[in-house]
Amino acid sequence: MNRIWLFGSAIDTDQIIPGRYSPYMTSEDELARYAFIERRPDFAPNVRPGDIIVAGKNFGCGSSREYAPRALQKCGIAAIIAPSFARIFFRNAINLGIPLFEADLTELVADGERATLHLEPPRLTTAQTAYPLPRPPAFVEEIRAEGGIVAYVQRYRRFPGERPAGTAVPSAPVVQS
Amino acid sequence: MTQTLSEQILSQAAGRRVKAGELAVVTVHRAMTVDSIAPEVIDVLHDQLHVDQVPHPDRCAIFIDHVAPAANVATAEGQLRARRFAQTQGIEAFYDAGAGICHQVMIEAHLVAPGTIAVGSDSHSTTYGAVAAFGTGLGTTDIALAFATGKTWLRVPETVRVDFIGELNAVSDAKDIVLHLLGEVQADGFTYQAVEFHGATALSLASRMTLCSMTTEMGAKAGLIPPDALTRRYAPVPTWLRVEESVNYQRRLTLDLDEIAPLVACPPRVDQVLPPRELQDVHVDQVFLGTCTNGRLQDLHQAAQLLEGRHIAAGVRMIVIPASHATLQAATADGTLATLLAAGATLGPPGCGPCIGRHLGVLGSGEVCFSTGNRNFAGRMGAPDAQIYLGSPQTAAATALRGVITDPRDIA
Ligand code: SF4
């Protein structure tokens, strides 16, 4: 089992990773080390792949920095569960293939509680309880199934919501074998 | 069936009639990125999308503004990559250090037009709604895809209509309007929605930019001013773009501009607003006049009016950073800059300055800054326990004069 990291509402991108610690100012390799570096310094050293973030509303508000969800992804976060997400964070996380669920569990689970995320059907299980999670829209699940938007457009040769014909989305080069 | 401005613009760019809630794949008329994100965009283009040449360099733009000029070797090398990329790709809309903040230059240099779609790797790309363009912020991967394909996909947003009545008094700014709105609807009040500001005819382009830029702080996807005579003076407006009758807005709000008075957003939340008179015991160390929200000539003028013939308080440092090179030149030519400098302010190169705490005015532990910017999150401008208060250029100037947060009406 993994653990839950519980956060309050309006966790902005400067709390997730301050702009001073962006890959532009530091380096991409160090990104995971800086997740919540000032907001919660015990996070990065102790987070384990499969851990889950449970937070209050408007998670990820603020800047468009994609390195915020990327830092959480590099830490191995299995999912973020919050009653609402800020729009650019939501989109960036979907694009990176990070599972997000719109649900309010902040009053139901505790920080540090053992838990496991299951995707099919979506639910969070703790020692005592299974919390069902709302299924994201189909296109979100499709993007996640491919591992992100880049893989999605390379596979389908189109964007979500686009008809298959007459598109010019670049695909991966054909690998000669 | 009638359409909101966003539905009209997205329908044109999608080549089919779309309505709120649908996914639409749209032509991107302008995609822009900035020095801090460009290296990541280049990596996604090369390593993941395997694109050697972007198909529409004339629809791309790159700005060196977030840490400009470079502050260290890492940023210098990031900028070098962006510069080389622009050259090899034939991207003519490349603006190097000192040219100014992306959003300001996008409008000044006419890189956006009414009725078009502009996306940027910066959240305040909503600013372009000031000239009736659909502007929105996207992340690295989306911008790389827009560079690679000339398109993006968007969920067509529902629209909130805000009607202004009355007239803004001389002591208040568009910033005060938007802080008032923020206090009412809160920082997630317009999440995923577009906002239309009606009755803004008397507001200047600069004020419109302030309003539209700050819709991001309410979670909005876009903020738009319906095209009017001022928009037409800026650029031709397509005939299909107009406010239609009996549109299905998701929500309607009315704001009486006569009632707007100076307001201040208190740390660490932009929607925690109070009148400056309730904050008179807050001592400030630094005053920052600048950013894409309030670093324009009009803003410099408003601050200079209060500072003329006076001097900022002892123990306060005031940093002025014009939003663009053109702003700096105009403020130099008309004497505004001389007034600000005579009052004790100092000057930084056009760009983002200390807004994101990377250089040119980073805050130390426990310091307090009064900024005309748009975000006061913990750690935004430096030490996590530094405090950032946000307000209008006039409130910033009054605060610099007294050294404590001050209502501009209290400067006799
Ligand atoms: S001035 Fe501040 S808010 Fe505006 S683009 Fe620059 S960093 Fe972002």
How does this model look, in words?
The complex is a heterodimer of chains A (177) and B (412). Chain A is α/β, with parallel strands linked by helices. Chain A has a single domain (2-156), classed as Aconitase, domain 4 (Alpha-Beta Barrel). Chain A has helices at 13-16, 43-46, 67-74, 87-96, 138-146, 149-156, and strands spanning 2-6, 52-54, 79-82, 100-102, 114-119, 122-126, 130-132. Chain A has a seven-stranded mixed beta sheet with strand order 4-3-2-1-5-6-7, with helices on one face. Chain B has 412 residues and is α/β, with parallel strands linked by helices. Chain B folds into two domains: 5-256, Aconitase, domain 3, CATH 3.30.499.10; 264-407, Aconitase, domain 3 (2-Layer Sandwich). Chain B has 13 helices and 18 strands. Chain B has helices at residues 5-14, 38-48, 73-89, 102-108, 140-149, 174-185, 205-214, 229-234, 291-294, 297-307, 325-333, 336-342, 393-402; strands spanning 23-27, 30-34, 60-63, 94-95, 117-120, 134-137, 151-155, 159-165, 194-198, 222-224, 251-256, 264-265, 273-274, 286-289, 317-320, 346-347, 368-371, 387-390. In chain B, strand 8, helix 6 and strand 9 (194-198) form a beta-alpha-beta unit. In chain B, helix 6 (174-185) packs parallel to helix 7 and helix 10 runs parallel beside helix 13 (393-402). The longest helix of chain B is centred in the N-terminal third of the chain and has 17 residues, at 73-89. Chain B is globular. The mean pLDDT of chain B is 97. Chains A and B meet through helix 4 and helix 6 of A and strand 1, helix 2, helix 3, helix 5 and strand 7 of B. The structure holds iron/sulfur cluster. Iron/sulfur cluster binds next to helix 9 of chain B.
